[in-house]
Amino acid sequence: MPKPPLRWGLLSTASINKALLDPLRSSKRNRLLAVASRSLNKASEYARKNKVARAYGSYVELLADPDIDVIYNPLPNNLHAEWTIKAVQAGKHVLCEKPLALSLADVDAMTAAAEKYDKVIAEAFMYRTHPQTLKAQEIVASGKLGKVKLIRGSYTYLGNDPDSYRWRPEMGGGGLWDVGCYPLSYTRALLGAEPLEVFGWQVTGPTGVDELFTAQLHFPEDVYAHFECSVKIPYHVYMEIVGDEATLMIPNPFNPGEKVTFFLTRYGKVEIIVVKGAGSYKGEVEDMADAILLGKPPHVSLADSRANTAAILALFESAKTGKPVTL
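The structure assignment produced for this chain is given below.
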């Protein structure tokens, strides 16, 4: 087992990397050591601008560095499984961006690799480690809402990069894989249960991806959920949990900051709940350190990731056939 600080390598110069730079630099148990790109010039320029000690002109070279303990994998969705497995085979732990993979076979292969090589693989749902999410889970579990009846959520944004892989279906583009996975994951985490049946509709864009997706889910004990997601609608995000005694409204569920506010409404009276915590990405970095150094289970297990993937695939199947899909 490695000793702190864990030494991290960034698998590409993806823009999402910037979210991890400060959390890694401010952590006592983690250290950013290297970055790789398919171009040495690009990797070197990124390393210079961001004060990263080592730069590699290929992903293979980064994985071969014996000093690297943890790989952050922010590659396009269709490359998550391939390069996460290669990293684990090279003796690295992996924090992999969501969605973990695009098929159950790939999730199973990643799980088998993690078990075989005794390495941690965790899906980077950064919101899951934030105190706001933990507080919301606590409120739902406590019964303060009464019996949960309905959960609603949304995650939409206006995509403006025509060259992004998010417009290519073969690369796992579209709204459901990119952002719909968040309200789905949030709903499952709050209920601690998996959907029994799902139904989905999608608006397919000219490139073949779902530009708008709406989902209906039926959970055990007659709990129903709805969410919408889109890469063609201006930013609109929330989660709402409706019980038979009270309602919890969370205006910023997926990327909460250092101080967030959400609202519990009971019989017309609104209680304002303020939660303080570090930024979302610091939590997932420290969660990886807990898993690797202390042997704690990560907040998002591979079984959890598999269940989220299964629900997404079922929603796509429903949208394709026009029929509900049982899980």
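Interim note for the steering committee: The chain has a mean pLDDT of 96. The domain at 6-124 is CATH 3.40.50.720 (Rossmann fold).
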